[in-house]
């Protein structure tokens, strides 16, 4: 089987040497409304820089209007305010909003270059301004703070209802794990209060017009509050529920943003391969897991185009344990029989595979595909860092960078807060 796959890669892959070599992917994207850009780690420079180049081309050539990333809404909205000129701040100040571990995912030099480009692109434009948003679910307390700020700035009568709802969380000292244990095992949950608040805020959001994008900011922070409460409540119990809540939330956040931009709005989504690659093409489905890629395909079908990324060897930024200082770690050569090893065997050059109805069957075998998270130990990656995947069913295209280097964080020391 390996020989036939290597032969197919040699026949179907296109060499990737620079931005012009992205043409086959840009052409294949066609009229898609949502483009999902993956990564095989949260700490690889080339994954960020290549995604940036694709993003720029989609904005310039196909009129894409917003970027949604695997980050917190409040922190990313600071970047959005910078690139749209809502706040006169430096790019460093914008990225300093990422002050909660793992900060390096977005506070890095590669993202710095992109947001400077986005600001320059937006200058002088009105309705065509491109936005930058976080679609993840983790910012429970930060999102509650933002809701109170928007309601206060707008002198809303709903602010007292919000304060009452949020008072339910006060005993937990802004510690999600405290709330999760208390809600899951002792019945001390804040569900009713948050649901009522969300309904009230969404009902009245059209009234909030004093600040740029206030209605969107309020709507998504309310959605985060609701879903983060459910996420932390289920997380301590184990099982697939917390993962599924998180990925359903990310899709809902994308849809909120798209609705804000109007009918046919076009968005680019940056997330790990494990989120944007269709879960049905992996062993995730056996564990009862769904993900953004699957949900988006089910809801929007051909309007979605997903691009996976991978590497054979190199270096990466990660930490040995959650919350610890990060370091540059080696990425070992792909294990024998993995997609990474087979792609390297077909030639050590960087390459692109565009999957079509004619060639998909050549790459639909279930084979291990590397996934590196923010916590990583290269010595043990063979024990759990390979996701069995039918690569041509998981993605619409795949970009393979044979040897990669570590992401460049704005600081090499991070404190978990």
What's the count of strands? Answer: 11
Order of helices and strands: HEHEHEHHHEHHHHHHEHHEEHEEEHE
CATH class of the largest domain: Alpha Beta
Rounded to the nearest angstrom, the radius of gyration is 21 Å
Proportion of residues in β-strands: 5-15%
Average pLDDT works out at 91
Can you give keywords for this protein?
EreA/ChaN-like  fold, disordered C terminus, globular, alpha/beta, 2 domains, 417 residues, two-stranded antiparallel sheet, 9-stranded mixed beta sheet
Brief characterization of the structure:
The protein has about 425 residues and is an alpha/beta fold. The chain is about 45% helix and about 15% strand. It contains 16 helices and 11 strands.
Structural overview:
The strands form two sheets. Strands 1, 2, 3, 4, 5, 6, 7, 8 and 11 form a nine-stranded mixed beta sheet that branches. This protein has a two-stranded antiparallel ribbon with strand order 9-10. The chain has two domains: 1-129 and 266-417, EreA/ChaN-like  fold; 135-262. The protein has helices at residues 2-12, 23-29, 45-62, 73-83, 91-95, 109-122, 140-153, 159-166, 176-186, 191-204, 214-235, 241-261, 273-276, 292-300, 339-345, 391-394; strands at 14-15, 34-37, 66-69, 131-134, 267-270, 304-318, 327-331, 351-354, 366-370, 386-390, 397-404. The protein is α/β, with parallel strands linked by helices and 417 residues long. Helices cover 43% and strands 14% of the residues.
């Amino acid at each position: 089987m390996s020989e036939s796959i290597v032969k197919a890669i040699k026949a179907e892959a296109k060499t990737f040497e620079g931005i012009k070599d992205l043409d086959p992917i840009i052409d294949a994207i066609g009229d898609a409304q949502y483009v999902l850009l993956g990564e095989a780690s949260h700490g690889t420079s080339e994954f960020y820089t290549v995604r940036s180049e694709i993003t720029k081309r989609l904005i310039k050539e196909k009129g894409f209007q917003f970027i949604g990333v695997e980050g917190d809404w409040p922190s990313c909205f600071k970047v959005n305010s910078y690139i749209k000129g809502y706040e006169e701040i430096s790019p460093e100040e914008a990225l300093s909003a990422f002050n909660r571990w793992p900060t390096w995912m977005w506070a890095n030099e590669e993202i710095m270059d992109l947001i400077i480009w986005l600001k320059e692109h937006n200058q002088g434009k009105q309705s065509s301004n491109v936005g930058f948003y976080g679609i993840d679910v983790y910012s429970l307390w930060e999102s509650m703070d933002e809701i109170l700020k928007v309601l206060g700035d707008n002198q809303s009568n709903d602010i007292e209802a919000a304060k009452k709802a949020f008072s339910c969380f006060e005993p937990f000292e802004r510690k999600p794990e405290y709330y999760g244990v208390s809600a899951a095992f002792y019945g001390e949950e804040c569900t009713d209060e948050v649901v009522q608040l969300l309904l009230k805020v969404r009902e009245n959001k059209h009234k909030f017009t004093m600040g740029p994008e206030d209605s969107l900011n309020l709507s998504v922070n309310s959605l985060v509050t609701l879903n983060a409460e459910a996420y932390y409540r289920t997380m301590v119990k184990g099982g697939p529920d917390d993962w599924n809540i998180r990925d359903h939330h990310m899709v809902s956040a994308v849809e909120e943003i798209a609705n804000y931009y109007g009918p046919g709005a076009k968005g680019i989504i940056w997330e790990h391969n494990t989120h944007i690659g269709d879960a049905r093409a992996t062993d995730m489905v056996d564990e009862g897991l769904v993900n953004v890629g699957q949900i988006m395909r089910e809801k929007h079908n051909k309007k979605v185009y997903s691009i996976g990324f991978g590497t054979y060897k190199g270096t990466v930024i990660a930490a040995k344990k959650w919350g610890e200082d990060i370091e540059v770690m080696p990425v070992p050569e792909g294990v024998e029989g993995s997609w990474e090893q087979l792609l390297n065997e077909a030639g050590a050059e960087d390459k692109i595979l565009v999957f079509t109805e004619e060639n998909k069957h050549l790459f639909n075998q279930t084979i291990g595909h590397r996934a590196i998270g923010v916590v990583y130990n290269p010595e043990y990656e063979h024990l759990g860092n390979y996701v069995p995947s039918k690569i041509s069913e998981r993605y619409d295209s795949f970009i393979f960078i044979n040897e990669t280097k570590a992401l460049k964080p704005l600081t090499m020391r991070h404190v978990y807060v």
